[in-house]
Structure formats: C-alpha cells, structure tokens
Design brief:
Immunoglobulin-like; 10 strands; mainly beta
Length: 189
C-alpha cells in the first residue's frame, strides 16, 4: 500500500511532487504524447538540447472544490522551462500563474494546486483548469497541455463533496482547444 500523501494548502501556484502513484484507473490514460526539439528562451540551444513532454493523464484531485481547482497530472518531460496554470469559469479567470519548471527532467504524477480569488464560485458552477508544461513560448511540438472541466461542490470529495467531471483532455499544445470543452476558458498563455 502506498504511503498516505499529506495534503496541505500552500500559496496559489505551489506544487507538490508525488512519489507514490495512485491506481492508473484513477487517471484518464490514453495515447497523448509530444516529443520534439525546441529553441530555449535566452538563446539558441546546443545541438543536443531537446524539449520533450509526454502527457499521460489528468484527474481531478479529491481536494478540488469551488475554492480549489486541484488536479493531478501524469507526464514525463525533458528540457521543460515553464508551467502555466489557469482556473476559470464562464465569469472569467479565477486564478492564473506561470512558474519555472520545477526540474527540466521529470517523470511522474504532479499534484497542482490553484485557488480561486474572491468571490468564490457558487456550488454547481462549472470550472475549467488548464495547464501547459513545456517551452516558452508554447508550441505544439514543444509543449503539452492538460484540461479538466468539472461542476464544483463547496467541499472537496475527500470532505464529502461530489464534484462532477464534465470534460478531460491532454496531449500536444493545441489538442485541447477551448472550443472542444463545454466551457470556453479565457486562456491567454
């Protein structure tokens, strides 16, 4: 049995790595891969430098609610520079941030935390979390994206809530165009 993962709230944009993988059934797993070379920000890369991201799945975390748009993303990366995260609803962007990639090389499941700014959406609101991982600027051959839309409850599933996942998508940047989702998230990254 994998060790229990302690869940603590951190500042919006804080990320936590998981070493123990949840059952694969908990993730939406399909063939969504991206492998390519790219120029790195700040100059031309050496001939051997490459950026590769393989998106393997996205799932709503048990802590997700109308306040917290927490998700688990499963991916492998080499040479990534940046991660951009956005939480939105039909009313607009609730949270958005970009952070430098934790490590240029990573393989596993990452628990990504995002927190809506007041006013907090009402229970029953459809929220969309969109994440891109890869190079800056993003491109279909150097960046992966993950999108999940859910109808939120006041409490996370781990606290008795019953969030309903409406849409999931992951793959190369551009695969999960907002027009494909039930919501049209206002994503600027």
């Amino acid at each position: 049995m994998p060790p229990a993962i302690e869940r603590r709230r951190r500042r919006p944009g804080a990320r936590r790595r998981r070493s123990a993988s949840p059952p694969r059934a908990a993730l939406v797993v399909a063939a969504g891969a991206l492998v390519a070379s790219a120029a790195l920000v700040g100059g031309a890369p050496p001939a051997s430098a490459a950026s590769a991201v393989t998106a393997r799945g996205v799932a709503l975390a048990p802590s997700a609610s109308c306040t917290y748009g927490d998700v688990d993303v499963d991916y492998a990366e080499t040479g990534s520079e940046v991660q951009v995260v956005q939480l939105s609803s039909d009313a607009g962007v609730l949270d958005q941030f970009a952070v430098k990639a934790y490590r240029a090389d990573y393989d596993g499941i990452e628990h990504i935390l995002t927190q809506a700014r007041p006013p907090i959406p009402a229970p029953g609101t459809d929220l969309t979390v969109r994440i891109t991982i890869g190079t800056n600027p993003p491109a279909s051959d150097t960046t992966a994206e993950f999108v999940i839309t859910y109808r939120c409850t006041a409490a996370g599933d781990e606290a008795g809530g019953a969030n309903q996942v409406l849409f999931t998508c992951f793959g190369a940047y551009g695969t999960c165009r907002p027009a494909d989702a039930p919501l049209r998230p206002r994503f600027t990254g």
